[in-house]
Amino acid sequence: MKRIAIVEDERFMREELSDLLKKAGYAVDEITVFDDVAGQLLSCAPDLILLDLNLPGESGFSLCRTLKRQSSVPVLVLRADEYLTKPCRGERLLARIRNVLKRFEGRGNLLEGTGYLLDRQTYTLYIQGRSVLLPKNQGKLLEVFLLHGGETVPKEELCLALWGTTEYIDENALQVNLTRMKKTMAGLGMAQQIVPMRGVGYRLVAKEDGNEA
Amino acid sequence: MKRIAIVEDERFMREELSDLLKKAGYAVDEITVFDDVAGQLLSCAPDLILLDLNLPGESGFSLCRTLKRQSSVPVLVLRADEYLTKPCRGERLLARIRNVLKRFEGRGNLLEGTGYLLDRQTYTLYIQGRSVLLPKNQGKLLEVFLLHGGETVPKEELCLALWGTTEYIDENALQVNLTRMKKTMAGLGMAQQIVPMRGVGYRLVAKEDGNEA
DNA sequence: AAAAACACTTACAGCTCGTGTAAGGCTTTT
DNA sequence: AAAAGCCTTACACGAGCTGTAAGTGTTTTT
After folding, report:
1. Interval B89-111: pLDDT, tens
2. Which terminus has fewer CB within 10 Å in chain B: N or C?
3. Is B37 inside a domain boundary?
4. Does one domain contain both B72 and B165?
C-alpha cells in the first residue's frame, strides 16, 4: 500500500483530505506539528507528499526545495482553493495522485489518458493498438494536460512546460502549438478535445460527438 | 492456445518440428498432402504458418504470395538447413515464433530483446525503466536483429530492411549505420553487441564483458 | 611478409521535419 | 459596432538524421 503524507495546517482541510485518501486505499501520515517538517517527512518515508503552500513558520516554498534536495520523493503542491470539498474536485486530485505515483514506480513514465497512454520521455502515444510518435511540443502539452487530470491549465503553465519560462508569454506561439496538437488528436481519433477557458487557459475534456439534428 | 501450421514435405524434419512446438505449448497442424495447400491452411486457420521453401508441386514462393493475398496470417519462411536438429537452433526458432506471434496479437508491435523492449512503429526503446527514441535506421536494424532471434542476419537482409531493396547494396552506408547503432547501444549499456560474420552478415549476441587480467 | 579483402571510423554536406514568426480571419464579449 | 480574445495558414530558420567520401585498422590469403 502507498503512503501519502499531508502537510496542511488548516485542520478541517487536513482531515477532509485524509478521509478522501484513506477511502481511496492509501496509508496517510498527517503532519500536525510544524517544526522541522522536513525531518518528520523524511522519517516517515512516504511515497508522495501533499504540500499546502501557505504554511506557518517555514514557508511551504523553501520546504519544498529542502525536500527536493534531500530526497527524491515526489511532492504535489496544492493551493488551498484548488481542492475545495466538492466531490468532483476530489476525483481530480486522486487522478493526479495516481499519475504521480505511477510515474515514480519502477516502470513509471507512462501517463494514462482516456483510451491511450503517453510515454513522458519519448512522447510516444499508445492508442488502439497502434503507437505514434508525437512531436516534442505536442507531447509536452499533452503531458501537462494529463498531469492536471482534466482540470483547467492556465496559459502560464503551458508556456512553462513548452519553454521553461513563464516570464515572457508568446500567446501566438502557444496558440499555434495548440492548433497543431488538435489536428493530430483529431487524426488519431482521440476521445478528448482541448477547449479554451477564455482569458485563463485550456482544459482537456471528453469529446461530445455532434449527434444533433 | 496458439495454433501453428507446418508446411514441410520432408517427414523427419516435419515431425521433429512438430515435437518441438508441441513441447513449447502450441497446437500444431501438419500439412501432409501437398495439394491445394493454401486451401488447407485457410481452413484450419492457424495463428502462424511455418513454411519450407523447397516444396514439391506448387513452389513455396508462389504459395507464400497466395497466402499473403488471401489472409493476414503471418508466415515464417524457413530454409531446410536453417533449423537442423541442434537444440540451440530450436530455441532460436521458438524465439522467432514468439516474436512474430506477439506482433500479431492486439497489443503487438513490441519486440523483446534481452533486458529491453522495442516498439516497432516508433522505434522507442524501453530499457531499465527509461525509454529512449532510436533514430529510424537504428530502429530498423535492431528490429531485424530481434526478428532473427540471435541468428546471423545476412547483409542483403539488413539492406532490405533499411532501403527496401536488396538489389544494390551500399556496403559502406550499411557499415556507417551499424557503427552508429553500436555507439548508441554502448551508451545505453545494452547487454548485447553486434559481431560481424565475415563476408556474410552480422549477429546480435550476448555481450562478454572483458573480465580478463 | 606482402597483398588483398574486408571491416571500421570520421567529417562533411544535403535533406526532412518540427518550430517560431507574421499576418490576417473568425468569434465572442462589451 | 468595436474590442478583446481565439484561430488558421504560409513561410523561413534550424536541429538532427542520413548518405557520401576518403582514409585507417584488421584479418585472411598467397
Report:
1. 677 788 788 877 776 665 557 88
2. C
3. yes
4. no
| Cβ neighbours of residue A35 closer than 8 Å, sequence gap 6 or more | A57
Res. B66: pLDDT tops 70: no
Q: How far is A37 from chain B (nearest CA, A)?
A: 31
Per the CB < 8 Å rule, is A124 touching B107? no
Q: Does B74 lie in the same domain as B158? A: no
Same domain, yes or no, for A129 and A92? no
Domains: count for chain B: 2
- Structural domain boundaries, residue A148: 110-206
In a shared domain, residues B62 and B147: no
* pLDDT category of residue A123 using cuts at 50, 70 and 90: very high
Q: Is residue B69 part of a domain?
A: yes
3-state secondary structure chain A: CCEEEEECCCHHHHHHHHHHHHHCCCEEEEECCCCCHHHHHHHHCCCEEEEECCCCCCCHHHHHHHHHHHCCCCEEEECHHHHCCCHHHHHHHHHHHHHHHHHHCCCCCEEEECCEEEECCCCEEEECCEEEECCHHHHHHHHHHHHCCCCCEEHHHHHHHHHCCCCCCCHHHHHHHHHHHHHHHHHHCCCEEEEEECCCEEEEEECCCCCCC
Q: Does B124 touch chain A (CB under 8 A)?
A: yes
Fill in the DSSP letter of residue B79. Answer: -
Provide, in whole angstroms, the distance separating residue B52's CA from nucleotide C8's C1'.
Answer: 37
If asked whether residues A77 and A144 sit together in one domain, one would say no
Inspect the interface and report whether the beta carbons of B108 and A129 lie closer than 8 Å.
yes
This prediction has a pTM of 0.64
Query: For A22-35, what is each residue's pLDDT tens digit?
Result: 988 898 988 888 87
If you write DSSP's letter for every residue of B83-147 in order, what string do you get?
Answer: G-S-HHHHHHHHHHHHHHHHHHSTT--EEEETTEEEETTT-EEEETTEEEEPPHHHHHHHHHHHH
Q: Is residue B148 part of a domain?
A: yes
Q: Is A132 on the interface with B (CB under 8 A)?
A: yes
Coil vs helix vs strand at B186: helix
Which of B124, B127, B138 is best to mutate for the A interface (most A CBs within 10 A)? B124
